[in-house]
């Protein structure tokens, strides 16, 4: 069970990093083209990254 939890934490950490990177990518698209949908997507991706981060922080407490 412990090995599975470690693998899960690694995958969720990768997802957080991915969504933060993707949000910055969309912010760059917004600053280059002025596309308001890119700003919305950046906000959405930051929100998903925060959600995964909170999940990752509380994961250990949930699986004691």
Give the arrangement of secondary structure elements.
Blueprint: H1 2-33, H2 36-62
Helix pairs in contact: 1-2
Give an overview in words.
This protein has 64 residues and is mainly alpha-helical. It has one domain. The protein has 2 helices and no strands. Helix 1 packs antiparallel against helix 2.
The main β sheet shows up as: none
Tell me the number of helical segments per DSSP (H or I, 4 or more residues long): 2
Stretches where pLDDT is under 50 for at least 5 consecutive residues are none
Quote the distance from N terminus to C terminus.
11 Å
Count of separate structural domains: 1
Q: In percent, how helical is the residue content?
A: over 70%
Mean pLDDT figure: 93
Radius of gyration: 15 Å
Please write the string of helix (H) and strand (E) elements. HH
Structural class: mainly alpha
Total beta-strand segments: 0
Q: What is the overall silhouette? A: elongated
Strand content: under 5%
């Amino acid at each position: 069970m412990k090995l599975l939890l470690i693998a899960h934490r690694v995958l969720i950490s990768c997802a957080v990093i991915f969504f933060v990177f993707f949000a910055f990518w969309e912010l760059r698209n917004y600053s280059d083209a002025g596309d308001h949908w890119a700003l919305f997507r950046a906000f959405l991706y930051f929100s998903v990254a925060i959600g995964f981060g909170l999940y990752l922080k509380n994961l250990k407490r949930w699986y004691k």
